[in-house]
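Complex record, three chains
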Amino acid sequence: MNADDNTMLVQAKGLSVRYGAKRAVDDVSFNIPKGRVVGLLGHNGAGKTTLMKALVGLATAEGELAVLGLNPRRQRVQLLEQACYIPDVAILPRWARVEDLITMMSALHPRFSAERARALLRRTSVGLSDKVKTLSKGMVVQAHLALIAAIDAKLMILDEPTLGLDVLSRKAFYEMLIDEWCDGERSVLISTHQVEEIESLLSDVLMLNEGKLVLSISLEDMERRFVGVSHDAAVAEQIAAAHPLLRYRTGTGPAGNAAIFDGAPPEHVQALGQRMRPSLVDLFVALTRKPELDRTHF
Amino acid sequence: MSKLVPLMQREWLQYRFGWMLMVLVPFAIALLLLAFGQIQIGPEHVDRVGEGLAPMLAMAAIAGSSGVMFAIASLSSLIIVSSIARRDHADRSIEFWLSLPTSHSASLGAPLLVHLLLVPAAALLLGLAGGLLVSMVLVGRVVGISAWFALPWGDLLPAVFSLFARLLAGLPLALLWLSPLILLVVLLAAWFRRWSWVILGVGFGLGGLLLDRVFGQPLLSQTTAALLLGAQQALISAGEGFQMGAAEGLEGLRNLPAWALHDFGLALGKLSSPLLAGALLFSAGCFALLVLWRQRGAGAAG
Amino acid sequence: MQTWDDRQPIYQQLADILAAQLLDGEPSEGAAMPSVRALAGRYLLNPLTVNRALQALGDEGVLENRRGMGLYVTAGARERLRVAERERFLHSEWPRLRERLRRLGIGAEQLNWEAR
C-alpha cells in the first residue's frame, strides 16, 4: 500500500494500545487508501477489536493515527458521522422495534437514509414492526447490517460482521459489499475468522499476531512475493532445506505436501514440485502459527 | 449537544408504553373507585365548610391526582435514572450506542433531562388534567354534578394554575438542590448497579447519623438535610406555608396566585447559597467522571 | 459460491472462466463485456481482481477498450482464444495426458473418437 497522503483514508504510525501493562496493539503501522477492501486477520485476542476501537476513538492509542484526516479520540463524533463502525453484530437494543431504530438512526446519523434501510430490509426476512427481542440471532445481524449499509460512509469498519449468519446471508452480505461499497472511493476494513471465504473479496490484508502486525500487503503483491510449491513426500527433505515459511500436508491434490516460501526459492527447489498459489489461509497459518482456524467449506 | 433531542426521543421510544400504563392505571382505578365506591365525609366537615364544600372537594381531587401522579412518576424516574450508566449492558447494546456519532455528555445528559425534568413535569400536567376529571366525579357523587359546573371557576382556575405554575417552575430548582445526591447515585451505579441506592442510603443516611451522634461530626447529615430542605422549598413553600383557614373559603383561594409568585421569588432567592454552589460543583464533578467512564468504554467487555 | 483452486492466481482463473465462456460465444464477438461491477457481483470478487482478469484478456487481444463505452469482444477473439487453448493443450495438458495413458497402457486405437 503506497503512501499518497491525499487518498489515504487511514494513516497509522507506531500505533499502540495498552491495557495496563499489556500491549493489545503493539507498534502497528499501516495505511489504507481509498477504494480498498482490507481484511484484518488474526486469532482471538490478537488485537483486531482493539485496533478497530482505536480507529474510531473508543480506545486510547499512542502513536500517530489519522482516520479520514481526523483524530479519532478528539474528533470522535465528527469521525463517526463519516465512517461507520459495527463493533459486534447482534447488539441492537432488545426493547426496540426495527422501525424505532430507523427513526433514531435518521435523527442521529446525518448520512443515514431511511429509505435505503427499508429497501435493504425488504430483502431480508426482518419486518419493520418486529421487536429486536423476537428476532433470531441471524436476523438481528441482518437488521444491523441493513442499518449500517444505509449509511453513506467513506470508511466502513466492520468487526466480524458475518458471525452468526448462515451461508446464504453471508453471500447476500458479500454481494451487498461489492455492489454498494466497491466504487473506488470507499474503503472497507473487515475483520473475520472466515479467511477462506473472504479472500476473493479482499484487495489488501493486515495480519495481526499478538498485537503485532506481521503482514501488511496487497493481495496482488502477496501473489508475487509468496511462492507455494506442492510436492511429493519423497522430496520433502530437500524442500525443507530451502527454509520455507511453512510446510504442511494438503491431503488433497496429487502431491500431498506443500511448502510456502517468502520470496522465490531457487530454481532447482521449484522444479521438485509444482508451483501453486499460497492461499490466504495458508499464509495466515504460516505467519501466526496457531492450530485453531476456521476452515469453513461450503 | 446537537444530538440531544434525538437522544431524548430514545427515552420516549423505550419507555412510552410503561409511561402510558403509569398514567392510565391509577386514573382508571381512581375513577372506578369514585364512581362506584363509597364516599364518606364526616358531618363535622360538611357543617364547617358548608358552601365551600364543593370547591374544597375539587381542590382536593386536583391536588390529590397531581400529587399521586407526581409521586409515581418521580419514583419511577429515580429508579430509571439510577441505572442509566448500566442499563444497556444487559443486552450488550451499549456497544451499539457507543458506535453512534453522539457525544458522551449528550448521551448521559439526555436521559437525565427526560426522566428528572420532563417526566415529572408531564406528570404534574397530566395530573392536573386528570384531576379535573376526578374532581367532576367526586363532586358529582357527593354534592351533585350540577354543583361541579356551578363551581366558582373564576377563582378556582387561577388558584389551580398558579399552584401548578409554582410547582413547574420550582421543579428545575429542586433538581439543582438534589443533583449531587442523584448524580452520585448514577455514578456509583456505574460500578455498583442497583446497590448504589443502598450505598447512598447507608452511606449518607446511617453514615451521616453515625458521624453525627457517635463522632460528633454532623457535617454529612446536616448537608444532606439541608439539600433535601432546599429541594422541598424550591418546589413549594419556600417561606410561610399557604394559610387558608376553613372560614375564608373562596377568599383564601383568591390569595393563592399572589402567594405562589411570592413563594417562587423566595425560592429563587434561596439559590444564592454557598451550599448550593458547592453542591453544583460536586454534581458537575460527578457528571465529568461519568463522561470519563463512558469514554473509557463504559465498562463494556472487550 | 465459486471456489478458487490453489493452482493459479484468482484473476487468472477468472480470465480462464471468461475465456471459456467467450469460446462458447458468450458474449459474442463485437458485443460488450459485462461491466466490472456485474462480474464482481456474479463471482463475488473484488473489482480490482476482475480488472486484472479483464486486463489479461485485453493483453491477449481478446478484449478491446472502446473509449467511453467499456470493454468489447474483439473480432476474431474466439479464433484467437481457440488457438491459445490449442497451444496450451498441446504443450502442457497433452504431454501429461499422454503420460497417463502410457501408464495405464491404453493405446490410441482403444480411445473412442466419436462424439457421443
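Note: The mean pLDDT of chain B is 84.
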